[in-house]
Design a protein that fits this description.
mainly beta; 12 strands
């Protein structure tokens, strides 16, 4: 007789989840890990300060969906810029070049969903446990982001942020 296992149910409150300072800027609050979803997805909340930008990049093996909970971002998707406000969503299919900039004056909170959850090793190695009460994340260190990308894959950094 074979046994079939399925992922356990997950319920987390607003402040629940492992808190990690991302070296690219921001505070990640991990809501569902790849292990918890049997590799189906990775979900984390990202809390970002005004002015935070990402380099132009792709995720070769996962689709990235960002749901803006608070604030506003300027999303660059495959050469076109879109303003996304609270309640809005932006989807970057695997392999599509994208970047974003936080333009809301008070920063932003967004949910970041990767399907499947194959980017988790990149994010883990490009972050560290967050200090209590640090809502903005830690020190930005793009060399550590680059090193994690080279070591773990999950992301390909194509160049600097495309915003003027």
């Amino acid at each position: 007789m074979s046994s079939v296992t399925s992922p356990a149910s997950i319920v987390r409150a607003k402040e629940d989840g492992e808190r990690r300072s991302f070296f690219g800027g921001g505070l990640h609050i991990w809501k569902a890990t790849a292990e918890e979803t049997d590799g189906a997805f990775l979900l984390f909340e990202d809390r970002l300060d005004h002015g935070k930008v990402t380099p132009l990049h792709t995720h070769p093996d996962s689709d990235e969906t960002m749901i803006v909970l608070e604030g506003e971002i300027l999303m660059h998707l495959d050469g076109v810029e879109h303003t996304v406000v609270a309640g809005g969503v932006a989807v970057a299919p695997r392999g599509v070049p994208h970047a974003f900039k936080v333009v809301g004056p008070d920063g932003t909170r967004l949910l970041c969903l990767h399907t499947p959850g194959c980017c988790q090793a990149f994010y883990w190695d490009a972050s560290e446990p967050a200090d209590d009460g640090n809502e903005a994340g830690g020190t930005v260190d793009m060399s550590r982001v680059q090193a994690s990308a080279q070591k773990n894959g999950g992301i390909e950094i194509l160049g600097p942020p495309p915003f003027s």
